[in-house]
C-alpha cells in the first residue's frame, strides 16, 4: 500500500515538474518572440525609404522622437547585429534588461557606457548581451574565426549627427573584475598620441589573429563588448577604427 502511494506521488510530482517546466519554456519563447518582433519593427522604421523621408537621417530622428535615450543605429552586414543603441547616463545599466520601449527584456538593448560622449569621446564603448541564439551580440562569437572577420570587417554606426563606418582591427578575449584582465573599458578619452598608441598596441597584442589594419592617432574608435564563456567573467571585444574620407 505504501509502495503504491509513493509510486502515485512520484508520478504526480513528475507530471507537475513537466507542467511547470513547459510553462517556463513557453513563457521564455513567448518573450523571445515579442522581443524579436520589437526589433523587427524598429528595423522596418530604420530601413523605410519612402519619399516622405527625404530629410537626411529622418529615420534616426523618428526613433529618437520615440525614445530620447536612443543614440544611434548599429549594423554589421550579413549578421544579426542590426540594432538600436541606447544610453542612460543617470541609470547606466538601465538597458541591460530593457527593450527600446523601456519594457522588461531578457535580451536587453545594446547601450553605450555612461562615461562616453557620442560627440567627443575618442572611443565609443557599446555593451550587448551574448545570447545563445546569436541575437544581440551573440553574433560576435563568430569573430573568433579569422575567415569570418575577413568577410565582415566593417561596423556601421549611424547617429543623429552623422553616418560612420569603422574598420575592425582587433578581436580579443579578456576578463573583468581581475588584475589579470585588460581594462579596455577605461580607454574612452585618449588624450595624447602616446596613450592612443599604447592602447592600440595592447589591443593588437591581445588580438586572436593578425589584421592588416593599423589605426593612427586621431582616428575615432568603436568597441563592441559582450560576455565570453571560456573564462569566468570573460569578455569578447571587437574594436574598430573610423573610416575617414
Unreliable runs = none
In terms of structural class, how would the helical and strand content be classed?
alpha+beta
Q: What integer value in Å does the Rg equal?
A: 22 Å
**Total tally of structural domains:** 1
Please report which band the strand proportion falls in: under 5%, 5-15%, 15-25%, 25-35%, 35-45% or over 45%: 15-25%
The tally of beta strands, per DSSP, is 8
Helix content: 25-40%
CATH topology: Sortase, Chain: A
CATH class descriptor name: Mainly Beta
Average of per-residue pLDDT values: 86
As laid out across the biggest beta sheet, the strand order is: 2-1-5-6-8-7-4-3
Largest sheet: 8 strands, mixed
Report on this model:
This protein has helices at residues 2-46, 58-66, 146-151, 193-206; strands spanning 70-75, 82-86, 111-112, 123-127, 154-159, 163-175, 221-228, 234-242. The chain has an eight-stranded mixed β-sheet. It has a single domain (51-242), classed as Sortase, Chain: A (Beta Barrel), CATH 2.40.260.10. It is α+β, with helices and mostly antiparallel strands and 245 residues long.
Amino acid at each position: 500500500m505504501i509502495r503504491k502511494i509513493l509510486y502515485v506521488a512520484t508520478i504526480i510530482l513528475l507530471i507537475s515538474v513537466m507542467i511547470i517546466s513547459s510553462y517556463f519554456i513557453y513563457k521564455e519563447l513567448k518573450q523571445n518572440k515579442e522581443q524579436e518582433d520589437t526589433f523587427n519593427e524598429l528595423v522596418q522604421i530604420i530601413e523605410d525609404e519612402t519619399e516622405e523621408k527625404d530629410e537626411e537621417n529622418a529615420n534616426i530622428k523618428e526613433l529618437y522622437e520615440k525614445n530620447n535615450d536612443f543614440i544611434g543605429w548599429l549594423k554589421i552586414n550579413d549578421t544579426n547585429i542590426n540594432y538600436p543603441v541606447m544610453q542612460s547616463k543617470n541609470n547606466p545599466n538601465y538597458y541591460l534588461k530593457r527593450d527600446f520601449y523601456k519594457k522588461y527584456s531578457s535580451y536587453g538593448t545594446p547601450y553605450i557606457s555612461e562615461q562616453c560622449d557620442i560627440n567627443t569621446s575618442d572611443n565609443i564603448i557599446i555593451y550587448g548581451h551574448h545570447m545563445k541564439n546569436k541575437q544581440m551580440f551573440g553574433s560576435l562569437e563568430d569573430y573568433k574565426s579569422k575567415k569570418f572577420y575577413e568577410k565582415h570587417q566593417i561596423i556601421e554606426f549611424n547617429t543623429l549627427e552623422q553616418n560612420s563606418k569603422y574598420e575592425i582591427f582587433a578581436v580579443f578575449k579578456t576578463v573583468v573584475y581581475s588584475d589579470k584582465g585588460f581594462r579596455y573599458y577605461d580607454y574612452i578619452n585618449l588624450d595624447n598620441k602616446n596613450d592612443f598608441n599604447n592602447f592600440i598596441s595592447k589591443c593588437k597584442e591581445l588580438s586572436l589573429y593578425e589584421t592588416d589594419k593599423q589605426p593612427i592617432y586621431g582616428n575615432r574608435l568603436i568597441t563592441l563588448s559582450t560576455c565570453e564563456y571560456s573564462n569566468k567573467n570573460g569578455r569578447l571585444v571587437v574594436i574598430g577604427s573610423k573610416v575617414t574620407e
